[in-house]
Amino acid sequence: MQLRDYIRIISKRGWIIVVVAFITAASALLFSRVQTPVYRSTIYLNVIPARLDWGLQQTIKGLMRNYAGTIKSRQTASEVINRLQLDITPDNMSSKITVSPIEADFLIQIDADDYDPLISRDIAQKTAEVFVERIKVFMLDQDKQDRVDVSIRDYALPGLLHKPKWKINTLAGGMLGALIGGLVVFLLEWLEADIIRSSEDVERYTGVATLGVIPVVASGNIRGNRGNIARSGRFGALRSSRHQPQP
């Protein structure tokens, strides 16, 4: 297909793409608006070895994944629940927490999600505090040269909106609708590919220039022309009979 064919298709059926994109974008926006907003608060833990030894640093990188599992454990969740006096189960608390070790920077990122931005901040802060206290107690029995210091880099702030991201959802819905609308348009064109409606279609499919076309005559005009022809025939017959010699 040439560029002019695409332009012809878009100008003819482009409204389908626009309508479908508008419907999907509006649906995504409505879906985002009816969802309950979830807020996320983030806090970072520094994981620093007691000495700058390559072997100890590699050991710490391996331990950080174990630390992440400990932070999400039911034991840590139960302690956080007790300190915050929350009426939820340890499993629900664990589901609110996401832990991501950042081995290259010797950091552990703790994310806490909740419907209340202040509650999400408190969960992140208390989770970090409980884990740091536990590690400090554990390190008291270790040799000073082999200890790992875990500390809170900064205090957690009230949670920011994590989801739904209505702008992103609306944009994604519109793009999906435009894609679906485009597929519908080209499907309709494919179904009508064998239908010839104009001289341009004849030239496009045959590659031969069109020298002339049969004019389109409305059905009412056809009936009128037929009536005129019939009346003219009867009038001619009448005149012929009048001019015929009488026997």
Can you offer a commentary on this structure?
- The chain has 247 residues and is of the alpha+beta class.
- Among the domains are: 126 residues, Bacterial polysaccharide co-polymerase-like (2-Layer Sandwich); 44 residues.
- It is built from eight helices and five strands; from the N terminus they run αβαααββαββααα.
- Strands 1, 2, 3, 4 and 5 form a five-stranded antiparallel beta sheet that branches.
- A hairpin with a 4-residue loop joins strand 2 and strand 3.
- Helix 1 runs antiparallel to helix 6 and helix 3 crosses helix 5.
- The radius of gyration is 40 Å and the shape is elongated.
Task: Indicate the topology.
Blueprint: H1 3-34, E1 38-49, H2 54-71, H3 74-84, H4 90-95, E2 97-102, E3 107-114, H5 117-139, E4 148-152, E5 160-163, H6 166-191, H7 199-206, H8 219-242
Antiparallel strand pairs: 1-3, 1-4, 1-5, 2-3
Helix pairs in contact: 1-6, 3-5
